[in-house]
Amino acid sequence: MFAGVIVSLTALLTIGAVAPAEPGALKEPVRGVLDRNGPAPAAYASVVDAFVVRVKWKDLQPAPQELNTSAITAALATGRPLRLRVTAGFDAPDWVKTLGGRAALPWYTEATGGPAGWIGAFWTPEFGAAYRDLQVRLAELYDDTPQLREVVVSRCTTEFAEPYIRQTERLARNQTALQGAGYTAADDEQCHRDEIAAHAVWTRTRSYLAFNPYQRIDETTWTASVDPAFTRSMIDHCRTVLEDRCVLGNNSLDPDRPATYLSMYAYMAGKGAPIGFQTATAAKICADADPCPPELWNATLDMALDYGAGSVELPQGVTGYTSWPIEEIPPYHGLRHYDTALSLTGASAAGRG
User: Fold this and answer.
1) Where on the phi/psi map is residue 345: left (φ > 0), alpha (ψ -120 to 50), or beta?
2) Which parts of 254-315 are beta strand (E)?
3) Distance between the two ends of the chain, CA-based, in angstroms?
4) C-alpha span between 54 and 52 (Å, rounded)
5) Does residue 130 register a pLDDT over 50?
6) pTM beyond cutoff 0.90
């Protein structure tokens, strides 16, 4: 089925080990504005020249000892700088979700209706070992590939590649599955530490981690709270373990963010580059207006610069970035202005490590 792109465990073991990174060999981070889901259209490619290659874990590793790298190979063929986002959560393989004889867990994100998807017990050692093994295999293949600048940390996730989000507004619907699978807050905390440690195998490639104010679940009372202090501790931990290989990120940038987010952004900025953002959806930052008012998307990208970002993943859709001008539209800026400004900020991270 995947002829020509399946890599067996035996084949992986015959691939030469990645040479240890020499001093100064750390790859530059992704810089400027980038498409969050593939190459930019030709009309925008001169400015939006980097992109995210998004691959579902279940498609990448359909069986424990196989890798289907076709999506990554196709992305590399473009010659563009890349951020690799392997999505877990809903997109983890069934064989990972059922490790240790467990059943996959239904996960609800709405007040009514069926589950939005099914997750594995991501906090368990078995799940963690599978994620760590995946990072080892990918690093063996791509840590020396210049185009692949960053990989996304995604083990401890549910719906999106945002490890600190637990959809706690639906805890009443998800409690039964979590309780039956033995979830504890302590194990969840350890998951966050371990997913960062799993990325230490990438010695030349940076790891992007999306932070949010942590949605804590107390398994003794089955109540939820927001724990910004834990998020700050993990920002510190990521930079301690990975140093400048840790790209501090967030995937919902929008000027209309609550104070807990603004405080988190300020804390990230205080740690210095590399920092990256993904904007909120176009509908959110454009206030559902069509066309998107330039003052609104300008404000979002200005915010990224204010908090020290070197890269921003742009929104898609009818009112997304492909409807925004590339050049200046006084008194507003075009995308080229922001690509240049972000690239200059991102340059402060180059050569570190």
Assistant:
1) alpha
2) 275-279, 311-314
3) 41
4) 6
5) yes
6) yes
